[in-house]
Amino acid sequence: MSAEAALIARAEAILPGAVIIRLERRIKTALAVAAFLIVFVACCYDLGLSWDVLGGGLVKMGTILGAMWPPTSGGELPRLLLALVQTLAIAVLGTLLAALVAIPLGLAAARNIVPNPAIHFAIRRFMDLFRGIPVLVWALILVAAVGLGPIPGILAIAFSDIPRLGKLFAEALENVDARQQDSLRATGSSTSGVFRFGVVPQLLPVWLSQCLYYLEQNFRAAAVVGVVGAGGIGFELEERIRIFAFDEVAFITLMYIIVVGIVDFGSERLRAHLT
Amino acid sequence: MKDSAASTGTSSLNRVAAIESEWRQTIRKSRLQTFAWMILVSIILLGSVELSAVGKSSVDAGWIDRIASFVDRLIPDLRADALFAGRQVDGSLASWFYDLPRWLEAMRETVAMAFVGTVVGGLMALGLSFQAAANLNRNAFLRHTVRRGFDAARTIPDVILALIFAAAFSLGAVAGVLTIIITTMGSLGKLFSECMENAEMNQVDAIEGVGGNRLLQLRFGILPQLLPQILSYWLLRMEINLSVAAALGIVGAGGIGMELERAISFTEFDTYLAILILIVFCIFVIDLVSEQLRHRLIGLTQ
Amino acid sequence: MLELKNLRCCFGDVVAVDNASLSIAPGEMVGIIGRSGSGKSSLLRLINRLYVPQQGEIFWRGQSVTALKGKELRDWRGRSAIIFQQFNLIPRLDVLTNVLLGTLATRPLLPSLFKSFPAEQRARAVMELDRLGMVDTAFKRTQNLSGGQQQRIAIARAMLQDPEILLADEPVASLDPINSEIVMQSIAALNRERNITLLINLHSVDLARRYCSRVIGMNNGKIVFDAPVEELTDQEVDRIYGATSQPCQADLAPQKELKTARPAAVPPTIRGEPQLESIA
What we know:
Oligomer: heterotrimer
Low-confidence stretches of chain A: none
Radius of gyration of chain C: 19 Å
Order of helices and strands of chain C: EEEHEEHEHHHHEHEHEEHHH
Largest sheet of chain C: 6 strands, mixed
Structural class of chain A: mainly alpha
Helix content of chain C: 25-40%
CATH class of chain C: Alpha Beta
Number of strands of chain A: 0
């Protein structure tokens, strides 16, 4: 014991603070951890998360999962397939609309296109503000505005993606390698020629691949907006959950997951090909 | 001498011609490809328009009027002279945001949902992602099972999950939190496991070499080198989850979204706008804070 | 006493170690030489059980460690420390913590997970760092240190394991000449002063000749030479490294070799090194 104490004393003399950790340092870490835990537990309490609630719910969840087996189409396979394709169509049109509006916005927000810093700063902040609005929030108000059907769905997807794509487009524009334009200018090309051969070839694959990525995401979003009345697979799912037809819910979900997998795979291949 | 010069001349001419025809072919091929792609894309677009029934449903006579009356009801009737008057005065800001305390309460619930969901979902993702990384889990069956689990959790629309959870746990924040946990686990789990597959394995070797068990190998061989990336993804997810939590309320899963739903069902569109402004403001503030934190984390790695 | 009997280890079709048998007395300092890919690293990793042998037995002090599992295996790894060519430290942790990681095998799990180590171990870590002249770096992040400093930290980590045998896998192959001398001397001192059995893979014959009392040569997974260092003639070196006529630059990572081997040959060497050029 004394040999140990002597060793500790010697080492502490060589390098003070390395061997005996001061209490205040320990208390600091302990306080940080405790503060985090307290906030976390308080949040759980606030949300009504308790073991009772979770336990009771899990039992019901078990029943629901049990009711999901075996999955069945309920004899409505053609209708479901149509809804699925419709959802994909909503995603395609929403992405297209978003891209069309995002192009001018992206041009205006790019530093190397618009020299006036006030303009592109304002546009960027504006897009940042709108970026946070979830697609479902858009869908809810748009359904109220234009009525049920795919149009509010398409518009909701477009509205929520315009600021996101706009920002990405602007960043891609700013990343365009200026040397290619310089070399074209050096050969005496016109401005439009410089743009056509110095900018577009670099930009188009990036923009296309970004659009494809958003198309993947929007296939999911299109299912979400269906729940508040924008048609497609989300509407079918919502209807069946409300009437507790969980075997059909399971069938539609599985079908949807598989198709999403296929779309993602195809789009990923295309994107890899593009870049 | 002359002969040979002439022959080289013709042969180089031939070569030029060959190159030119090859080039023409390439151009033709690429034009053909572009054309084929354009046709394919047009078919997809036309099909989409047809299938989504955009053309049939939309254009009726009262369309513009409807939009106009909607916008009219969306914009609050603010009066410049009464802007800062009390709640009872029509046209004041306070009467526009008439239920602000309750909305703030709901907003707090939304933030709590996002926080708890992100923390728990992220921890679950961290615990499982080791199993999904090819360099850390040699058991292919287990690895693919975990990966497919992540994929499924990411793919099922969050709103659908929330509805199913609401069926089991009744409407409210609990269903929302569980939904966020599942989707967060799926997306972060995928990202984390991809990080881990790019991790340097010699640090794991070192801990194995000194006699550390599996847990210690992950704790010291993997976690320190990936921590900045992991935390940065985690914070990013926290931002995303805030808007997810706000949206989930619309289907009854607690938080500010339920207030949005209520405003729509009473057709109080100006109230909807007020709540939306509140949401956007909160998301904006939290984004700023989180962005700062993330930049600091990335700074740490460099 | 370390004994290997007919050890064999392969990865797919590649035989890394083939029918290797040897016995090493306590306190010996044994150098292993051979071209890269000759199975030196695999041999050390087999002893530490980072690799699993397909055939054969490993005995330490008369007890088999070939089939150890779980806690016993980790215990054995704790007693047989290993030092790597690339140091294998945790770059984002500070030096002191890196050194303390050497105690993982003997410490309870929970405090270890939270990087909590008792004062006595911390004191030992400081003393080891001090002995290696590294105490000033104790609170620095490991990633900011030079290769020579990192390797010394790795040695300190190995010493915290309180090892009975030290396995060093090309400890100086990535270091510049001065640092490789410092590191080699620190390793040799451990053998001299603490009587730790030492098995060391070396990329340079010269280092083996100067530091080791016994040399093992490996070629193509087989042990082809095993004798006191005096018997390591140039002909034997050629035999170990394969062909005499063809210099094997390709196998020996020439840049590293140039850095370390050449200046090592400049100071007064104990034995001749005429054949070194053909290897370098």
